[in-house]
Description:
The protein is mainly beta. It has one domain. It has 3 helices and 17 strands. Strands 1, 2, 3, 4, 5, 6, 7 and 8 form an 8-stranded antiparallel β-sheet that branches. It has a 7-stranded antiparallel β-sheet with strand order 12-11-10-9-17-16-15. It has a two-stranded antiparallel sheet with strand order 13-14.
Amino acid sequence: MTERGRAALARDATSYRVGRSSLTWDGAALRIAIDEIAVPIPRRVRGLVRVHPAALPARPFVLDAAHRHIWAPIAPHARVEVQMRDPALSWSGHGYLDSNAGSEPLEDGFRFWTWSRAIVGAGTGVLYDAERRDGSALSLALLFRPDGRVEQRDCPPVARLPRTLWRVPRPTRADAGTTPQLVRTLEDAPFYARSEVASRLWGEEARGVHEALALDRFRQAWVKLLLPFRMPRVG
Protein backbone atom coordinates (compact mmCIF):
# COMPACT_ATOMS: atom_id res chain seq x y z
CA MET A 1 0.00 0.00 0.00
CA THR A 2 2.85 2.39 -0.86
CA GLU A 3 2.86 4.52 -4.00
CA ARG A 4 6.04 4.33 -6.08
CA GLY A 5 7.50 6.42 -8.88
CA ARG A 6 8.49 5.07 -12.29
CA ALA A 7 12.14 4.54 -11.28
CA ALA A 8 11.09 2.12 -8.51
CA LEU A 9 9.18 -0.21 -10.86
CA ALA A 10 10.44 -2.96 -13.16
CA ARG A 11 8.93 -6.09 -14.70
CA ASP A 12 9.52 -8.83 -17.23
CA ALA A 13 7.79 -12.11 -18.13
CA THR A 14 8.46 -13.77 -14.74
CA SER A 15 9.14 -10.98 -12.22
CA TYR A 16 7.79 -7.68 -10.98
CA ARG A 17 9.71 -5.28 -8.69
CA VAL A 18 8.09 -2.54 -6.61
CA GLY A 19 10.69 -0.61 -4.62
CA ARG A 20 12.58 -3.11 -2.45
CA SER A 21 9.82 -5.71 -2.75
CA SER A 22 9.39 -8.14 -5.63
CA LEU A 23 7.24 -10.93 -7.08
CA THR A 24 8.83 -13.82 -9.00
CA TRP A 25 7.11 -16.71 -10.80
CA ASP A 26 9.12 -19.95 -11.05
CA GLY A 27 6.60 -21.92 -13.10
CA ALA A 28 4.95 -23.57 -10.11
CA ALA A 29 4.75 -20.94 -7.34
CA LEU A 30 4.75 -17.19 -6.88
CA ARG A 31 7.52 -15.93 -4.59
CA ILE A 32 6.67 -12.59 -2.92
CA ALA A 33 9.66 -10.96 -1.19
CA ILE A 34 8.54 -8.13 1.11
CA ASP A 35 10.88 -5.38 2.32
CA GLU A 36 8.97 -2.29 3.43
CA ILE A 37 8.73 0.36 6.14
CA ALA A 38 5.42 0.45 8.01
CA VAL A 39 3.50 3.67 8.71
CA PRO A 40 2.51 5.71 10.67
CA ILE A 41 5.02 4.30 13.21
CA PRO A 42 8.11 3.40 11.14
CA ARG A 43 9.31 -0.21 11.46
CA ARG A 44 10.68 -2.81 9.09
CA VAL A 45 8.33 -5.34 7.48
CA ARG A 46 10.40 -8.09 5.85
CA GLY A 47 9.66 -11.64 4.85
CA LEU A 48 8.73 -14.13 2.17
CA VAL A 49 5.34 -15.37 0.94
CA ARG A 50 4.96 -18.32 -1.43
CA VAL A 51 1.69 -18.89 -3.29
CA HIS A 52 1.20 -22.40 -4.75
CA PRO A 53 -1.88 -22.33 -7.06
CA ALA A 54 -3.93 -25.49 -7.41
CA ALA A 55 -4.76 -24.26 -10.93
CA LEU A 56 -4.68 -21.05 -12.96
CA PRO A 57 -8.14 -20.41 -14.47
CA ALA A 58 -6.83 -17.38 -16.44
CA ARG A 59 -10.33 -15.99 -16.94
CA PRO A 60 -10.85 -12.24 -16.34
CA PHE A 61 -14.25 -10.70 -15.58
CA VAL A 62 -15.41 -7.28 -16.80
CA LEU A 63 -17.05 -5.30 -14.00
CA ASP A 64 -18.71 -2.47 -15.95
CA ALA A 65 -20.45 -1.84 -19.26
CA ALA A 66 -17.68 0.44 -20.55
CA HIS A 67 -14.98 -2.21 -19.89
CA ARG A 68 -12.98 0.22 -17.75
CA HIS A 69 -12.61 -2.19 -14.81
CA ILE A 70 -11.34 -5.77 -14.96
CA TRP A 71 -11.06 -8.36 -12.19
CA ALA A 72 -8.81 -11.40 -12.66
CA PRO A 73 -8.96 -14.26 -10.12
CA ILE A 74 -5.39 -15.44 -10.80
CA ALA A 75 -5.16 -18.20 -8.17
CA PRO A 76 -8.54 -18.43 -6.42
CA HIS A 77 -7.65 -21.80 -4.85
CA ALA A 78 -4.09 -21.97 -3.53
CA ARG A 79 -1.80 -23.00 -0.70
CA VAL A 80 0.13 -20.15 0.89
CA GLU A 81 3.29 -20.22 3.04
CA VAL A 82 4.31 -17.11 4.99
CA GLN A 83 7.70 -16.72 6.67
CA MET A 84 8.33 -13.25 8.10
CA ARG A 85 11.56 -11.96 9.67
CA ASP A 86 10.13 -8.63 10.89
CA PRO A 87 7.85 -9.23 12.70
CA ALA A 88 8.87 -12.82 13.43
CA LEU A 89 5.90 -15.01 12.49
CA SER A 90 4.99 -17.81 10.11
CA TRP A 91 1.77 -19.25 8.74
CA SER A 92 0.54 -21.67 6.11
CA GLY A 93 -2.88 -22.62 4.83
CA HIS A 94 -5.49 -21.82 2.19
CA GLY A 95 -4.86 -18.71 0.15
CA TYR A 96 -6.09 -16.61 -2.75
CA LEU A 97 -4.55 -14.26 -5.31
CA ASP A 98 -6.37 -11.88 -7.62
CA SER A 99 -5.82 -8.64 -9.49
CA ASN A 100 -7.88 -5.56 -10.33
CA ALA A 101 -7.04 -3.24 -13.20
CA GLY A 102 -8.78 -0.20 -14.62
CA SER A 103 -8.49 2.85 -16.86
CA GLU A 104 -10.17 5.18 -14.36
CA PRO A 105 -10.20 5.54 -10.56
CA LEU A 106 -12.47 3.05 -8.79
CA GLU A 107 -14.53 5.85 -7.25
CA ASP A 108 -15.40 7.15 -10.74
CA GLY A 109 -16.98 3.83 -11.70
CA PHE A 110 -18.51 2.60 -8.44
CA ARG A 111 -20.33 3.86 -5.36
CA PHE A 112 -19.91 0.78 -3.16
CA TRP A 113 -18.82 -2.83 -3.43
CA THR A 114 -18.34 -5.97 -1.41
CA TRP A 115 -16.27 -9.03 -2.14
CA SER A 116 -15.83 -12.24 -0.21
CA ARG A 117 -13.87 -15.46 -0.60
CA ALA A 118 -14.43 -18.65 1.39
CA ILE A 119 -13.60 -22.33 1.33
CA VAL A 120 -16.82 -24.08 0.25
CA GLY A 121 -16.51 -27.86 0.32
CA ALA A 122 -13.54 -28.80 -1.86
CA GLY A 123 -13.63 -25.50 -3.75
CA THR A 124 -13.42 -21.76 -3.29
CA GLY A 125 -16.53 -19.58 -3.37
CA VAL A 126 -16.32 -15.92 -4.39
CA LEU A 127 -19.14 -13.37 -4.11
CA TYR A 128 -18.84 -9.99 -5.83
CA ASP A 129 -21.49 -7.26 -5.53
CA ALA A 130 -21.04 -3.68 -6.73
CA GLU A 131 -23.17 -0.56 -7.08
CA ARG A 132 -22.00 1.19 -10.23
CA ARG A 133 -21.87 4.97 -10.51
CA ASP A 134 -24.43 4.87 -13.37
CA GLY A 135 -27.04 3.28 -11.08
CA SER A 136 -26.73 -0.29 -12.37
CA ALA A 137 -25.49 -3.21 -10.27
CA LEU A 138 -23.11 -6.15 -10.57
CA SER A 139 -23.59 -9.50 -8.81
CA LEU A 140 -21.29 -12.49 -9.28
CA ALA A 141 -21.41 -15.82 -7.45
CA LEU A 142 -18.63 -18.20 -8.50
CA LEU A 143 -17.28 -21.54 -7.36
CA PHE A 144 -13.68 -22.30 -8.33
CA ARG A 145 -12.73 -25.97 -8.34
CA PRO A 146 -9.17 -27.08 -7.47
CA ASP A 147 -8.72 -28.35 -11.05
CA GLY A 148 -9.39 -24.85 -12.45
CA ARG A 149 -13.04 -25.26 -13.45
CA VAL A 150 -15.20 -22.20 -12.79
CA GLU A 151 -18.91 -22.60 -12.03
CA GLN A 152 -21.32 -19.67 -12.02
CA ARG A 153 -23.81 -20.18 -9.18
CA ASP A 154 -27.09 -18.55 -8.25
CA CYS A 155 -26.55 -15.60 -5.94
CA PRO A 156 -27.78 -16.42 -2.41
CA PRO A 157 -30.04 -13.84 -0.72
CA VAL A 158 -28.51 -10.67 0.70
CA ALA A 159 -27.70 -10.84 4.41
CA ARG A 160 -26.41 -8.18 6.79
CA LEU A 161 -23.41 -8.08 9.07
CA PRO A 162 -22.99 -5.38 11.74
CA ARG A 163 -21.65 -2.02 10.57
CA THR A 164 -18.07 -1.16 11.46
CA LEU A 165 -16.99 1.42 14.04
CA TRP A 166 -16.68 3.87 11.13
CA ARG A 167 -20.30 2.95 10.19
CA VAL A 168 -19.30 1.26 6.92
CA PRO A 169 -22.07 -1.24 6.00
CA ARG A 170 -21.11 -4.89 5.50
CA PRO A 171 -23.77 -6.56 3.32
CA THR A 172 -23.01 -10.12 2.23
CA ARG A 173 -24.89 -13.16 0.95
CA ALA A 174 -25.84 -16.46 2.60
CA ASP A 175 -28.22 -19.35 2.05
CA ALA A 176 -31.89 -18.59 2.73
CA GLY A 177 -32.85 -19.20 6.35
CA THR A 178 -29.27 -18.85 7.63
CA THR A 179 -27.52 -15.96 9.35
CA PRO A 180 -23.84 -15.20 8.64
CA GLN A 181 -21.65 -14.57 11.67
CA LEU A 182 -18.99 -11.90 12.04
CA VAL A 183 -16.01 -13.78 13.51
CA ARG A 184 -13.72 -10.75 13.80
CA THR A 185 -12.88 -7.46 12.12
CA LEU A 186 -9.41 -7.49 10.58
CA GLU A 187 -9.33 -3.93 9.24
CA ASP A 188 -11.62 -0.99 10.06
CA ALA A 189 -10.95 2.21 8.10
CA PRO A 190 -13.19 5.19 7.25
CA PHE A 191 -13.99 3.77 3.79
CA TYR A 192 -12.94 0.10 3.97
CA ALA A 193 -13.44 -2.98 6.14
CA ARG A 194 -11.96 -6.47 6.00
CA SER A 195 -13.58 -9.13 8.17
CA GLU A 196 -13.55 -12.84 8.89
CA VAL A 197 -17.01 -14.31 8.37
CA ALA A 198 -18.67 -17.71 8.88
CA SER A 199 -21.80 -18.57 6.86
CA ARG A 200 -23.45 -21.16 4.62
CA LEU A 201 -23.21 -21.04 0.82
CA TRP A 202 -24.94 -23.49 -1.55
CA GLY A 203 -25.62 -25.90 1.31
CA GLU A 204 -22.03 -25.95 2.60
CA GLU A 205 -20.33 -24.41 5.62
CA ALA A 206 -18.24 -21.44 4.45
CA ARG A 207 -15.61 -19.49 6.36
CA GLY A 208 -13.50 -16.80 4.80
CA VAL A 209 -12.70 -13.14 4.25
CA HIS A 210 -15.20 -10.36 3.47
CA GLU A 211 -14.34 -6.89 2.20
CA ALA A 212 -16.50 -3.76 1.98
CA LEU A 213 -15.41 -0.65 0.07
CA ALA A 214 -17.42 2.57 0.45
CA LEU A 215 -16.30 4.68 -2.51
CA ASP A 216 -18.71 7.56 -1.90
CA ARG A 217 -16.98 7.88 1.48
CA PHE A 218 -13.54 7.58 -0.15
CA ARG A 219 -14.31 10.53 -2.46
CA GLN A 220 -14.70 12.90 0.47
CA ALA A 221 -11.80 15.30 0.95
CA TRP A 222 -11.40 14.61 4.69
CA VAL A 223 -10.87 10.91 3.98
CA LYS A 224 -8.21 11.55 1.32
CA LEU A 225 -6.37 13.80 3.76
CA LEU A 226 -5.96 10.76 6.04
CA LEU A 227 -4.39 8.52 3.38
CA PRO A 228 -0.74 9.64 3.78
CA PHE A 229 -0.83 8.54 7.44
CA ARG A 230 -1.36 4.91 6.33
CA MET A 231 -0.04 4.94 2.77
CA PRO A 232 3.11 6.86 1.74
CA ARG A 233 2.31 8.74 -1.46
CA VAL A 234 4.34 10.07 -4.39
CA GLY A 235 4.34 13.86 -4.89
